[in-house]
Design goal:
The complex is a heterodimer.
Chain A lengths: L5 H14 L28 H15 L10 H4 L3 H12 L1
Helix pairs in contact in A: 1-2
Chain B lengths: L18 E3 L9 E6 L4 E5 H14 L5 E4 L4 H14 L2 E4 L5 H10 L5 E4 L9 E3 L17 E3 L3 E8 L5 E7 H15 L4 E5 L6 H13 L2 E4 L6 H11 L3 E5 L1 H9 L12 E6 L6 H11 L3 E7 L3 E7 L6 E3 L4 E4 L9 E4 L7 E2 L2 E7 L2 E7 L3 E4 L2 E4 H9 L4 E7 L11 E6 L3 H9 L11 E3 L13 H17 L1
Parallel strand pairs in B: 2-12, 4-5, 4-6, 5-9, 6-7, 11-12, 11-13, 13-14, 14-15, 26-27
Antiparallel strand pairs in B: 1-8, 2-3, 9-10, 15-16, 16-17, 17-22, 18-19, 19-20, 21-22, 23-24, 25-26
Helix pairs in contact in B: 1-2, 4-5
Classes of the chains: A mainly alpha, B alpha/beta.
């Protein structure tokens, strides 16, 4: 069962739309599952080009610019939950 | 052993030279790289660089081949040059998938090892360069070492016509001359180079590394990815800079809003783009947004960089000095074009259709249908299909480009298999680069093969259309 918060659901919708994901719906993204590691169970298996698309969608929707040189980048981008947390912190 | 002699450019006179110096216009105290630090930027001189290269070279084992997997751009260059001095060929694998590395290492003999700069899971012989203590003396090195022109500096890998990744040999003279020619055309004065492309990619290697050794480039040791990283890196150089990038990164930079009237002006002298051609209208819009000229480089793994253009001004590609194109007429459907140049040791076949305008200029047609290009990663459809069908549990399958009209679109796949989409994707991602893994992967009861077992593009596209229509009406 999904345990997304309302904000996470909203971000999930942004990801689905930005990446044109066809085989999964927003509510099916598991909030704590890795976005990028294809070998992890429930991962979306995204790649670097997806990351660029996500950064554009996030800049547009939340006015937050993601940075790869941020030391915490890997943990920020780890899951839907961590990404949402980062966006909320930036705008908080 | 390293021998030293007076540095000179191979192209300075007409007599062929047996060697080309590692650094073309060696000036011990001139900067070779800029290292971003917490508070600003640190300059690394050519002398300091050579000291590191020498010290590392002495620590490395004797081997014919090593896989250079360093991620830090400057460290990659130090290792690249240390291997050159040692007489070891840099192997540049097409991706980091464990199976790919293992296959390549096996092919290149018992002494072949991996060299990397950050913790890396690796089950073949390896050296972590960050763990090596180097004895750096402070003596000034008077001249740059000479490297034999015919020495095999690097081997890059590309998808061959047989569907198996093909090794492309890069001798030192080929790499050095290409960088000299590019620098003469694109870098009029010492310029910082900020690159979004990795150093292992042939385009990234020739521009962000070799233009530093052989031309006017000064490396900014970064690998910016997101738009905000790019603007940060450019603001960090503190000097006139050129951005070396790709259509995908440039599009993101322009669309992100990272550059606006509030940001401070970037020290951009120009932008270089390669991996996929930009339409003139986009190129012009980018030039206006970034307030600098945008050049494109045309090349391929086999020939390296071979032509440039300033896109909005002229769609014609201007060949680099010495290049000649040859058209063969043996096959009417796909006339094969090959490129030759004095610094190439053999003519290189091109994967594009080319309309030659005069001796030095041409227009680009479409890429041959078999090649898929996503974010600078290229693979032949035949190769991708081979990898797909290799997966246990896949009864039949086909990878193809769905008709969606984008410049660079991802491949999609049909499979006949009991495996889930996730399982197929996970298995493929062990073998091929993530950007080339098909999306979506659609399970079908069977593929529309004709009576001879062939699967035509038309049948595939028809099946795709039917699938899309069914989905829309669900």
């Amino acid at each position: 069962m999904s345990e997304q918060t309302e904000q996470e659901r909203e971000l999930a919708e942004v990801l689905i739309e930005a990446l044109e994901l066809e085989d999964i719906s927003a509510e099916e993204i598991i909030a704590q599952a890795p976005l990028f590691d294809i070998n992890a169970p429930d991962s979306l298996g995204l790649d670097s080009i997806d990351a660029l698309e996500i950064s554009l969608a996030i800049a547009k929707k939340y006015q937050v610019q993601l940075k790869a040189d941020d030391e915490n980048n890997k943990s920020i981008f780890y899951s839907l939950r961590s990404l949402n947390q980062y966006i909320q912190d930036q705008n908080g | 052993m390293t021998t030293y002699s007076t540095s000179r450019l191979a192209s300075d006179n007409n007599t062929p030279q047996a060697t080309t110096p590692l650094i073309a216009d060696y000036m011990p105290n001139a900067p070779i790289a800029l290292q971003p630090t917490k508070g600003g930027v640190l300059t690394i001189t050519q002398n300091e660089f050579l000291q590191r290269v020498n010290a590392l070279s002495q620590k490395l084992p004797s081997a014919d081949f090593a896989l250079n997997l360093c991620e830090d751009r400057f460290q990659f260059l130090v290792v690249f040059c240390a291997l050159l001095l040692k007489g070891t060929t840099n192997l540049l694998p097409p991706n980091r998938q464990p199976l790919t590395l293992k296959d390549i290492a096996k092919e290149y003999g018992d002494t072949c090892y991996c060299i990397f700069d950050s913790p890396n899971k690796c089950d073949i012989a390896h050296i972590d360069v960050s763990q090596l203590a180097l004895d750096i003396t402070l003596e000034e090195i008077a001249t740059a070492p000479n490297i034999s022109n015919t020495q095999m500096a690097a081997i890059a890998f590309t998808s061959g016509s047989t569907g198996k990744p093909k090794a492309i040999n890069k001798r030192w003279q080929t790499l050095a001359t290409t960088a000299q020619l590019l620098s003469q055309r694109l870098l009029k004065a010492p310029t910082a180079l900020v690159a979004t492309v990795p150093p292992q990619h042939m385009y990234g290697l020739e521009t962000s590394l070799l233009m530093v050794l052989q031309g006017n480039g000064i490396m900014h040791n970064s690998h910016p990815f997101f738009p905000a990283d790019i603007t940060n890196a450019l603001c960090n150089t503190g000097m006139p800079s050129i951005l070396i990038s790709t259509p995908i990164h440039l599009r993101a930079l322009i669309k992100s809003g990272a550059i606006n009237s509030d940001t401070k002006p970037l020290p951009l002298q120009g932008v270089i783009s390669a991996t996929a051609p930009l339409p003139a209208s986009l190129a012009e819009a980018y030039e206006n947004m970034l307030a600098c000229p945008l050049w494109e480089i045309y090349g391929c793994t086999e020939a390296g960089s071979m032509a440039t253009r300033q896109t909005h001004a002229n769609m014609q590609w201007a060949l680099l000095e010495g290049f000649k194109l040859h058209h063969s007429t043996t096959d009417n459907t796909h006339p094969q074009v090959t490129a030759s140049a004095p610094h190439l040791f053999e003519p290189a076949p091109l994967g594009d259709t080319i309309e030659q305008l005069d001796e030095n200029h041409f227009l680009l047609g479409s890429r041959h249908q078999d090649i898929i290009n996503v974010g600078g990663k290229r693979a032949s459809v035949a190769d991708l299909n081979r990898q797909l069908l290799d997966i246990p549990g896949i009864e039949d399958g086909a990878i193809f480009l769905p008709p969606n009209g984008k410049i660079e679109s991802r491949p999609a796949a049909f499979v006949v298999s009991a495996l889930s989409e996730h399982e197929v994707r996970a298995a493929l991602s062990k073998r091929i680069d993530a950007t080339l893994v098909p999306r979506p992967i659609i399970s079908v009861p069977n593929l529309p093969r004709n009576s001879t077992g062939k699967l035509t593009q038309q049948a595939l596209q028809q099946l795709w259309k039917t699938q899309q229509r069914d989905k829309a009406t669900q």
